[in-house]
Amino acid sequence: MTFINYASREINCKIVYYGPGLCGKTTNLQWIYEKTNPNAKGKLISLATETDRTLFFDFLPLELGTVRGFKTRFHLYTVPGQVFYDASRKLILKGVDGVIFVADSQVERMDANVEAIDNLIVNLKSQGYDLLNIPYILQLNKRDLPNVATVDEMRKALSRKTPPEPVIEACAARGTGVFETLKGVAKLVLADLTKTS
Amino acid sequence: MAAPDIVMYEEEFNQIKGIIAKLRVDANSKVVFLVDKNGQQIAAHGEIEHLDTTSLASLTAGNVAATDGLARLIGEKEFSILFHEGEKDNIHISIVASRVILVVIFDERSSLGLVRLRVKKASEELNRVFSNIMAKVEKERANVGTTFESPFAEITDEDIDSLFS
Ligand SMILES: Nc1nc2c(ncn2[C@@H]2O[C@H](COP(=O)(O)OP(=O)(O)OP(=O)(O)O)[C@@H](O)[C@H]2O)c(=O)[nH]1
Ligand SMILES: [Mg+2]
To answer: What is the ipTM metric for this complex?
Structure first.
């Protein structure tokens, strides 16, 4: 649910990073936080367990600048990837404007990726959204590891849209592809505003 | 898109700011702010210079969402009021017009009873303003089949790149 304030000429969008446990959602946000100009970002809030697993969400507000005379803010959230936190994942999808699915490229995580995408589709539906209509990017993370599936294999297993969603290779731990992913979804979200009504 | 967007116009925005400013005084409180259920701040008033209102907004929405989830689990529709008591400061959270969250922060200069009373009155006024807004949005949508005018109709790669530069 984009929030447009014509009085103060502001627009706020909510972006959610989704994906299986340990795929690198929080790492994406941490990189963005570290590399963003201090006056363009707020605090990075992480509601996490003692072992740094996301418990409820991470939150990073970005105030990026002006497009067409509107001050543009993006609120980035991650969900907890561990299967048993499903109720929390559902809550965080409320009012979402765009989704980034962070897939773990390691071969042994492919089942977990598939399960998480199916879960995303179900949870979007429970909030009244359809993956097919929502601004959406597929990020293939951890490309630096030796035991990864090929991009083709991953597309085949994880792509859900026609025409296919944008796919971006990344190594969030080193920042590769992180901003590219965010820009990709930002563009889809802003462009989507024209169609929402 | 499933939920209608919240759109804020000058007239209603000023009314809202007026209502929460008055509530702050009437309730003898430190801060009053209004957040949508997704954690976006709508308006804030009071001693907010040293307050991270963006984080406050997001955590408040998370708190309300989690509590709503709890309510449904035990068969309640919602818990319409949340209250957190601290050593010095307290937070009173309530839902207005079923879509926005009204937060009042107060200390020993006020009391829960007073805050509750004043919040109730302000909520009625806010309810009215938000139903006006929704009516306006609906009207605008219905207008001559034109789609709701977006300022981003032809956004370009350059626009996006300039945001992240
Ligand atoms: N090698 C490698 N490791 C990564 C990469 N991205 C993240 N990691 C590591 O993967 C682990 C988990 O990352 P997180 O960002 O906490 O994962 P998450 O998706 O937030 O996990 P949950 O909060 O449990 O859902 C950390 O040790 C990261 O350093 C990457 O691109 N390459
Ligand atoms: Mg995490």
So the answer is: 0.74
